[in-house]
Task: structure prediction
Amino acid sequence: MVTYGRKADDYRGRYFRQMGLVLLTILLLAVLPLTFFDDEMRNLYISEGGPIQVFSAAGYLVVMATLVRELPTKYLLKHWYFLAIPIAMCLRELDFHAHLTTYSITKTTFYISPDVALPEKLAAVSVFAILGLSAYRLVTENFRDFMRGLARYNASAVAIIAALGCAVLSKTLDGAASNLDVFGIHVTPNYASVVIEEVLELGIPMFMSIAAFAAFPAQDTRFAEL
Result:
């Protein structure tokens, strides 16, 4: 009996079409509330626990489920950071960084305030240490393979670049007001900029999901009797 399987590159066109659909979806989701929604729906759209935030968290769950399903247990234990990063991003999307502590652990106030207990601060520092180690190992152990894949126009590598682009753009919009304030330029974020930021954050797990699917394409398996 002989098994024939397709390589990931054979599915390249499919995944690039999916990336195109994601870009179209991002555009539609950004325009939709600005064009058709009333004030109540607009507020719900980008609210905590609203549809954009929930779909973003669900996207990270899809990424994690794909990795768990496709990668051997031994490989996952050795490369645990593949799961640690999307888990952290999912929890961040659901605002766990602020719900479980006195203040948000991303704010300086958390670390200098006398109202925050020392064990709580140490726990937060430990979380960032784990994430830092995860990012370090992710880059040092996979950068060369990633660049080779990008040079070959591999769908998984391109999807990762797209996810990083969404992350950079969303963070740029998120910090634009405070960054410009340093130069004496006072900008007040409007609804449109907030919507675009939130929708770009949704784009991150969508592209990461495509990257995971492209890395582990469904096998078109055929069997033939010898």
The chain is about 75% helix and 5% strand.
